[in-house]
Design brief:
The complex is a heterodimer of chains A (650) and B (131).
Chain A (H helix, E strand, L loop, with lengths): L2 H28 L3 H20 L3 H20 L7 H15 L6 H9 L35 H27 L5 H24 L1 E3 L5 H14 L3 E6 L4 E3 H22 L3 H6 L6 E10 L2 E8 L6 H5 L7 H5 L20 H10 L3 E7 L3 E9 L4 E9 L2 E6 L3 E5 L4 E4 L2 E6 L2 E7 H5 L11 E7 L2 E7 L1 E9 L13 E6 L5 E5 L1 H7 L20 E5 L3 H13 L3 E5 L2 H10 L3 E7 L7 H9 L9 E5 L4 H10 L3 E4 L5 H14 L1
Parallel strand pairs in A: 2-4, 9-18, 13-15, 19-20, 19-21, 21-22, 22-23
Antiparallel strand pairs in A: 1-3, 4-5, 5-7, 6-7, 8-9, 8-16, 10-14, 11-12, 12-13, 14-15, 17-18
Helix pairs in contact in A: 1-2, 1-4, 2-3, 3-4, 3-5, 4-5, 6-7, 8-9, 9-13, 17-18
Chain B lengths: L1 E8 L2 E6 L3 E6 L13 E7 L2 E6 L1 H5 L8 E7 L2 E7 L1 E8 L10 E7 L2 E6 L1 H11 L1
Parallel strand pairs in B: 2-10, 5-7
Antiparallel strand pairs in B: 1-2, 1-8, 3-6, 4-5, 6-7, 9-10
The chains are: A alpha/beta (650), B mainly beta (131).
């Protein structure tokens, strides 16, 4: 039996004992009625069952002894007051025993027996070993600490504050003149420490998928019996950690997917045999971590979605969207179980609420795979900051498809849209979408294409503010009914940014169709190439979308050394845009290396720095930087103009 | 008798049961929350916590004032900051007469002034209803 399961048993038992303790104390004061007895009986019975499963016979025996006492009380319909102290002692003994202190079990069992009456059905508990931690047949579990979930969250909030505090110090120190190397070193060290601390706290919020898989096996068995199927459930990757806030909803969603797979995926045994498949179908639940996401898939080896349904998926649409249309069902027969599509809309909506995506792939005759891609944690998200009407908003990058400068806008019936990869994308002013008052957009507006599932919508804003990793804070019970906000984040300068829910924004914008043929994308084969160097993926991709939208070919590298490797293999890099601080080789070292290369003296190099630091800037200028852009003032228009000027002037 | 905080809203005087008062603070930068309704001025952060700011004057139909202070109130897990002009005196007030108007638990006569006792849960309900 797994140690994780044992840990869960421990926690569960302690909770049960706490409840029983409270109930017994209440009964001591006011007498216990039949409801009290029934509740105590249920709790005791569960403990007895689980303890038995783990081979913890002493605990199971003691729980059995409590049961005997309750059984007699049940006949009389009243909990005898003189029995309560002995039962409280037994409850305490069980609580101690599940945390490896079984010394009190024997005495507690004796106390219960001393209550008199018959001891029928009570098997004497084996004598517990007297040395703590040396329980028969099991190694000592590491000590565990039970902590209320809110405490972990408030700890996480404090860590977030500490990070902001460090950033403020960094900013202040940059203001007081030349960067002191020792100070900068300490600040960097502080950042590493805070990151480590934050990862540690986040880890406390995580529980393995295992915590919820017990119910899945039951659900499959019940569903298979109901529709006369033979099904084997396979669980893969059950140790994958998930944010505990997510587990509850995920459990319901998985049960839904499993029932669908059994009822509508797996064929009846005879039909399977005729097809040359094993009589028993297989449904696999698999969890795996993919970067900052967790993929939960439910795959069956059944008949798959009918070819007709697959053919009905519109270009640019997805099978998940078709199947998740409310009321859609592929059920060819009536059954007690819901049709494939019934409820899939609920699963999809749930996954999207979590900032995730639902994907479905299916091969007729071979099977169907439904994947839920959800973020690893809900507590910290990376957001793209946008500004509209003087106010800063954050949009999780998981919901941002790309960022554009200019689009070929088309109007239809008062609505605006543009063509993107052959699909019309509705375009709205962010201020209109939110219903806020703001001055009209200037010519240097930025367009953020949002993505939810396969639907896209674009919002216009005044400018972009780069990306940030932020701690998500709740807006509180008064404002949380506003579904368009995921919460709020406190930025480095103490300002509050509302976090927008991309799924809600996309949903709130209507789908549009465009008249006329799709605009042909005449991307010139001779477009100049820009090399973007940054150690952060989101910055690289943000720069890529901006530059590609402006017609450049973009190559990316994650640090100076990788950039030099690119330059070794590519002759026609027209411009290099680089970050300053990167592992292995930073931007200034890269600049110096480029200038000493053959032909490297004339390549324009743009430095993008998060710090507007005069000495650093001087060093850049001395080494031959062509332009210096400060990230906090990072405007795509400025970047495009700078690059345009530099390439043109070459 | 129970302790209340006396607040000034425009030219009117009200009192809030001290059990519902968390603290009094000054108005910092308030961020608008589009869609939150006319009674919500926005949100601000108080030592890392995000709190809605409620236009108490508008809610009570009081003549406009400066609303330079924030009275942070709570009812269970619901918290909000009420924008008020003054909040200083804490005084013991007798149990109020039966409720006379909405948002009030009643009123008491103190030194010749009629003080409405604010019904904090009702105020928070009113904000939820329009947001």
């Amino acid at each position: 039996m797994d140690d994780v399961l044992l840990g869960i048993f421990r926690e569960e038992s302690i909770e049960r004992m706490d409840r029983m303790g409270a109930t017994l104390h209440a009964a001591e004061a006011g007498g216990g009625d039949s409801g009290t007895i029934a509740q105590l009986f249920r709790e005791t019975h569960s403990i007895k069952g689980s303890a038995g499963m783990f081979g913890l016979d002493a605990i199971a025996g003691l729980a059995g002894a409590i049961e005997d006492v309750l059984d007699r009380s049940r006949e009389r319909n009243v909990l005898a007051p003189q029995a309560i102290p002995a039962m409280l002692a037994a409850v305490d003994a069980i609580r101690a025993a599940v945390t490896d202190h079984p010394e009190g079990v024997e005495a507690a069992a004796a106390g219960l027996r001393a209550l008199g009456g018959e001891t029928n059905g009570f098997r004497r508990a084996p004598v517990a070993p007297s040395t703590p931690g040396a329980r028969a047949g099991r190694t000592a579990a590491p000590p565990t600490l039970r902590v209320r979930a809110e405490k972990v969250d408030s700890l996480l909030a404090s860590v977030g504050e500490t990070g902001l505090h460090r950033r403020r110090i960094e900013r202040l120190s940059a203001r007081t003149g030349p960067a002191d190397e020792a100070l900068q070193e300490e600040l960097d060290h502080g950042k590493a420490l805070i990151d480590e601390l934050r990862d540690g706290v986040l880890d406390l919020r995580m529980l393995p998928l295992q915590t919820i898989t017990a119910g899945l096996t039951r659900a499959v068995r019940a569903a298979a019996a109901e529709v006369g199927r033979e099904v084997e459930l396979k669980l893969v990757g059950t140790t994958t950690p998930l944010d505990r806030v997510m587990l509850d909803g995920i459990s319901d969603a998985l049960v839904h997917l499993l029932r669908n797979a059994v009822a509508h995926g797996i064929e009846p045994p005879d039909e399977r045999e005729a097809l040359g498949k094993p009589r028993a179908g297989t449904v696999t639940i698999c969890a795996e971590q993919r970067g900052g996401l967790v993929a939960l898939t439910c795959a069956d080896d059944g008949r798959g979605v009918p070819a007709g349904v697959l053919a009905s998926v519109p270009a640019g649409g997805s099978l998940a969207d078709v199947l998740a249309k409310p009321g859609f069902s592929t059920a060819g027969e009536l059954s007690e179980l819901s049709g494939r599509g019934v409820g899939l809309d609920a699963v999809k909506a749930h996954v999207e609420t979590l900032g995730g995506v639902l994907q479905v792939t299916s091969l007729p005759g071979t099977g169907t795979t439904v994947s839920m891609l959800v973020p690893l944690t809900l507590a910290v998200v990376t957001v793209l900051l946008v500004k509209r009407g003087g106010q800063v908003f954050g949009i999780p990058v998981s919901g941002v498809d790309r960022v554009l400068g200019q689009v070929d806008e088309q109007h239809q019936g008062g609505r605006r849209a543009f063509e993107l990869e052959g699909v019309p994308v509705p375009l709205h002013d962010l201020a209109d979408t939110l219903g806020m008052h703001a001055p009209s957009l200037g010519p240097s507006r930025a367009i953020v294409v949002l993505e939810s599932g396969t639907r896209r919508a674009a919002v216009e804003c005044d400018e972009l503010g780069g990306h940030r990793e932020v701690v998500v804070k709740s807006l509180g019970p008064l404002l949380s009914p506003l579904a368009r906000y995921l919460g709020a984040a406190i930025l480095g300068d103490g300002a509050v940014a509302l976090l927008l829910d991309p799924a809600q924004l996309v949903r709130s914008t209507d789908a549009v169709t465009l008249a006329g043929p799709p605009a042909t994308n005449g991307a010139a084969a001779r477009a100049p190439t820009v090399l973007v160097v940054d150690d952060e993926l989101t910055v690289r991709e943000l720069a890529r979308t901006i530059l590609e939208a402006a017609g450049y070919v973009v190559i990316t590298a994650e640090d100076g050394l990788a950039a030099l490797a690119v330059l070794d293999g590519e002759d026609d890099v027209a411009c290099v845009v680089t970050d300053v601080e990167m592992p292995r080789m930073g931007g200034l070292d890269l600049l110096e290396a480029i200038r000493t290369r053959p032909g490297g003296a004339t390549i324009p190099v743009v430095i993008v720095s998060s710090r507007d630091d005069a000495p650093l800037r001087q060093r850049g200028t001395n080494a031959g930087a062509d332009a210096w852009i400060v990230k906090s003032r990072f405007e795509q228009q400025a970047l495009l103009q700078t690059i345009g000027n530099l390439i043109g002037a070459r | 008798m129970s302790a209340h905080v006396r607040i000034g809203v425009g030219t009117e005087q009200y009192a809030v049961d001290l059990d519902h008062v968390r603290e009094v603070t000054t108005v910092g930068p308030v961020v608008q929350v589009p869609g939150a309704g006319p009674l919500v001025d926005g949100v601000f952060q108080l030592r890392g916590e995000i709190l809605p700011v409620i236009r108490l004057g508008d809610l009570l139909g009081a003549p406009p004032g400066q609303a330079r202070r924030l009275l942070v109130v709570r009812d269970g897990d619901r918290c909000a900051a009420l924008a008020v002009d003054q909040a200083n005196a804490v005084e013991d007030l007798p149990e109020p007469e039966a409720p006379s108007e909405p948002m009030m638990r009643g009123s008491v006569l103190l030194d010749g002034t009629i003080l409405g006792i604010l019904d904090v849960p009702a105020v928070l309900d009113a904000v939820s209803a329009v947001s």
